[in-house]
Amino acid sequence: MRLTVTTLALMLSATAVSAQTTLTLYTSQSPEIAQQTVDAFMARHPDITVEWMRNGTSQLMNILTAEQEAGGIKADVLLVADSINLGTLKSQGLLLAWPEAPLEGIDPLMYDADKTFFGTKISSTGIVYNTRIAAPVTGWADLFQDANAGQIVAPSPLYSGAALIHMHSLLQDAAQGWDYYERLNALGVVPEGGNGPVLKAVAGGQVKYGVNIDADVLRAKRAGSPVEFVYPAEGATFFTEPVAILAGTDQVEAARTFVSFVLSEEGQKLAAEQGYMPVDPKVASPEGMPALSEIKLMPLDADRAVAEDVEARARFTEIFGG
């Protein structure tokens, strides 16, 4: 009888182990935000263990390329900063489409038309200014005045994923295009680095204005920095931190469960708690941010951006040197 009971216990233990699914996530979220996201998901789905690796989006793309060349991509799910890199993976056949993804009520601007990647939150790029030394502005036209020469900083699309989205969105806008960058150049602005140094320079009073991300500015403002964010009247560019399932995954159902979670009301409320505007309009924006319906967003065709990226980077370098 003891042998039978022991054997049965071992069988039940083996069944429990086999029922536990492991999902591998590659993400460009900050470590703190990534851990919050994974913890919330696993609390809701304790049968799925998420192992995650965090790096910058460009570095993650390099890792995926190396893994593919070495025999197979290890990630099941990607949660990264911008849609252009995911559009590149899509063009290479590396993303799994999910036509039945739970997208009810979400604006089609927030996800790929072929449903290979899905925006999870909205981060807008607009204008940050120092409230102690700068006059308020309402848009790019107000900012690009001769009086502001030498008083504007901006991140580079050759370095920052958000700035890359910003560039392509502007280039696809008939009213902006390359005139935006030509005007920056005329004012002596040389875009470089990422969004962090831009915000630091404005908050520290080294310059009056910067091109920056709303969530970052809001966090700095709450911490006491003399900064304010402006959603430009001409339209704010935006990125959606899209989530995607890798085509080679053997954990399709678990991956879909993860995607469903970040798009669910619970997942969208978590995004708002983390300081981001949700893609689901039914979920309220964080305190200090407008509702999605209250701002004008500048759309982006990610497939077009992928096709034009090499030429656009070359033109940018021609204007600003480098």
From TrEMBL:
InterPro entries: Ferric-bd, SBP. Residues 1-19 form the signal peptide. Keywords: Signal. CDD domains: PBP2_Fbp_like_2. It holds the Pfam family SBP_bac_8. PANTHER family: THIAMINE-BINDING PERIPLASMIC PROTEIN-RELATED. This is Extracellular solute-binding protein, family 1. It comes from Paracoccus denitrificans (strain Pd 1222).
